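Revision sheet: structure tokens.
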Amino acid sequence: MEHLVIIGWDSEGSVWYAVCDSIPLALESESLDKLILKVKVAAPEMLALNNIALPEDSLCLKFELREKIA
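Predicted:
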């Protein structure tokens, strides 16, 4: 099973965020690099806490940018 982590920018809060419903995971950081590191550390921990196996290469990071069009 692949776990899809959506990473995006919250312009109102000026933070990067990462969410994954299947793990479950919700993180934020002021820097994209720091956020990715947080995901790499937290995802396996959350999977272990929820007794979900993490096969190799099963974590997919997807970047999303949403903007309002005037």
